[in-house]
Amino acid sequence: MTFFAVDELVVNFGGIRAVDGVSFEVEAGQVFTIIGPNGAGKTTIFNLISRIYDPTHGRLLFRDEDITTVSPHEIARRGIARTFQNIELFEHATVLQNLLLGRHAHAKPHLFQEMLFLPGVRARERAHHEAAEKVIDFLDLQAYRDSLVVNLSYGVRKVVEMGRALCTEPALLLLDEPSSGLSVEETADMAFWIQDIRTLLGITVLMVEHDMSLVGAVSDRVLALNYGRAIASGTCQEVQAHPDVIKAYLGA
Amino acid sequence: MRFAFKTAYDYDLGLFRDPVQRRWYGGLLAAVILLPLAVPSYLVDISLVFIYGLCGLSLMVLAGYTGLVSLGHAAFLGIGAYAHVFFLQDLGLPWVVSVAMAAGLSAAAGVLVGLPALRMTGVYLTIATLAFALIIQEVFTRWEHVTHGLKGRPVDKPVIFGVSFASDWAFYFLCLAVLIGGLWLTANVLRAPTGRAWVAIRDSEIAAQSMGVHLARYKTMAFAYSAGLMGAAGALFAHKIGFLAPDIFSVLLSIQFLLMVVVGGLGSLHGALYGAVFVAMLPVLISEARDRVPAWIGQVVAGLGKDAGAAAYLAVDRFVKQPGLEPGIFGLILVLFILFEPLGIYGRWRKVQLFFSTFPLYKRATFRRQKSYMRSERLR
Fold first, then answer.
1. Is B282 exposed, middle or buried (0-12, 13-18, 19+ CB in 10 A)?
2. Angle CA(B111)–CA(B115)–CA(B121) in degrees, nearest 5?
3. What domains sit in chain A, N to C, each tagged with a CATH number?
4. What is the pLDDT along chain B (380 residues), one digit of tens a residue?
5. Secondary structure (DSSP) of chain A
6. CA neighbor of B113 nearest in space, from B99, B131, B101, B100
7. Which chain B residues are within 8 Å of A126, Cβ to Cβ?
8. Whole-angstrom Cα distance, residue B329 to residue B326?
9. DSSP calls for A158-222
10. Which listed residue, A116, A149, B149, B230, has the most CB atoms within 10 A of its CB?
């Protein structure tokens, strides 16, 4: 069974081919990292997976199903959650409210029941709160539970955003530059969170990352991109030593 | 600073933050119930505050919570009003059924506008709703069989289950009851998944989508809910004005509704009500001032000399009796709000509250908006 696979993915933006025939496969339980210089197409691949962009060619497979044409809101329900490079939290809501929105993948609209707040709505809300509180405990966010996101530091917001993604109970978690904007200590903490997410929650992680210390600490496999093409893949050491990768970063 | 000690999830699920808050709202309700005894001559004006409060709630859901600004809400008010009068007086349906059907019809119209409007964001959506309002106003004029066109249509006093609500104080309590019902329903939706999805759409469409929010479905629901509330408000509004004519439901009224939610404070139910008080009571205050201010100033200046007092009286009297003073003051207050308090009356109240509750640690940046109000615009 294929857990997650990207097959010959191509996307054109006008005359620019941002992703050019990239294929890779992520096994269940792995931490898979995509690296590459700026503009290599890493975030574009994430946006293709979360269906914000439509690929020109190629297929996305998740748990043996083709998700290339699934609508964007359906992706979360299938079990793929993501974070964003420049944090997309709901800033004037509390941490708890942000996490509860993460539970939306498990909610159906029941407008009339909700207008009257019938017992069924209350029971479902309790279940959502319980799930959100578990994530708060897992990520040690108790102290920030009721504070507004605008009042939190950047590092905490990164963790909250990861928590919101965890609230959807995903099978595959996409992390877009989890360490960007974090201090050295916060980055080290982030490495622990990612390891815990993999080993304790059993969630497969696909991430885009620049910080090679973090990449080396958590990744099982690494894929290097340059100008939309895959140039190397393997373990972190193999990829770091690959001549094409050195050339891409340092020039010929 | 007060800390809530929470021991069950239900603490976060309740309508009120804690028992203290519940008592405050209880006190407010008692005050509103006793108000007719204190100011018997203003009952009709305060009834209008309640009806505008419903309108404010309706637009607050759409503009304040979902981030979809509509300049055509007077059309939904009109649909509710005309539909109610048609069901009640032409078809002879009972009052409660008629109001429910008017709200339902208005909600259906909301879905109709919402569906094509979903492809538009920001100011384009606003223009589409404006166009809708103009078309509907034309329909009110032309569809004489139902609306009686420009001749206008008288509205009977409400009779519910055989009880007449013709007197001012009975109508006051009818409007109050409907407003409280509307508030309760809206607060319920806002604390449930649907309300959270609306707020998510307002703050970041892209993140909302990644969390599994079906954007089109929830935007349509917001339109339908908002239009439904507006329809119910329209039914009361028809009884309040007693005579329906197409030119009542003009773009100016839509703008007044938008003023209401902006001045009250976007993104809070309190704001809708503060805005309603402001918009409905300001004309009353201005007309009171018209009668009294010239005499006061005349008396004060009369201390300098009798002739000067009479001259001052005449000058001030001529100034305040000029036409156009009312919209001028409205406009001035709006400009001042947008310049100095974009978060509205409720925003100011929250700042004062937070200042005292976090006393030495208050920071202004809490209320600084890092992104423009309609953040979603940059995604398209």
1. middle
2. 120
3. 1-79+204-252 (3.40.50.300), 80-169 (3.40.50.300)
4. 566 677 888 878 888 877 888 899 999 999 999 999 998 888 999 999 999 999 999 999 999 999 899 999 999 999 999 999 999 999 999 999 999 999 999 999 999 988 876 777 778 888 999 999 999 999 999 999 889 888 889 998 998 988 889 899 999 999 999 999 999 999 999 999 999 999 999 888 888 999 999 998 999 999 999 999 999 999 999 999 999 999 999 988 998 899 899 889 888 899 999 999 998 888 888 888 888 888 888 888 887 777 888 888 888 888 877 777 777 887 888 788 878 887 888 888 888 888 887 777 777 766 665 444 444 333 33
5. --SEEEEEEEEEETTEEEEEEEEEEE-TT-EEEEE-STTSSHHHHHHHHTTSS--SEEEEEETTEE-TTS-HHHHHHHTEEE--TT----TTSBHHHHHHHHGGGG----HHHHHHT-HHHHHHHHHHHHHHHHHHHHTT-GGGTTSBGGGS-HHHHHHHHHHHHHHT--SEEEEE-TTTT--HHHHHHHHHHHHHHHHTT--EEEEE---HHHHHHH-SEEEEEETTEEEEEESHHHHHH-HHHHHHHH--
6. B131
7. 9-10, 13
8. 5
9. HHHHHHHHHHT--SEEEEE-TTTT--HHHHHHHHHHHHHHHHTT--EEEEE---HHHHHHH-SEE
10. B230
Distance CA B155, CA B132 (A): 25
Helix (H) or strand (E) holding B153: strand B153-154
Q: Do A117 and B9 touch (CB under 8 A)?
A: no
| ipTM (interface pTM) | 0.89
Pairing label, strands A221-226, A204-208: unpaired
By C-alpha distance, the chain A residue nearest B379 is A52
The residue with tokens 């595959």 is: A172
Q: How far apart are the first and last CA of chain A?
A: 40
Overall pTM surpassing 0.80 (yes/no): yes
User: Is the CB of residue A90 less than 8 Å away from at least one CB of chain B?
Assistant: yes
- Residue B74 tokens, joined: 């007077």
Which of B7, B18, B61, B211 is the best mutation test for A, with the most CBs of A within 10 A?
B211
Closest residue by Cα to residue B227 from B63, B43, B37: B63
Q: Chain B: nearest CA to A35, how far in angstroms?
A: 23
- List, in order, residues 6 or more apart from A18 with CB less than 8 Å away: A11, A12, A41, A44, A228
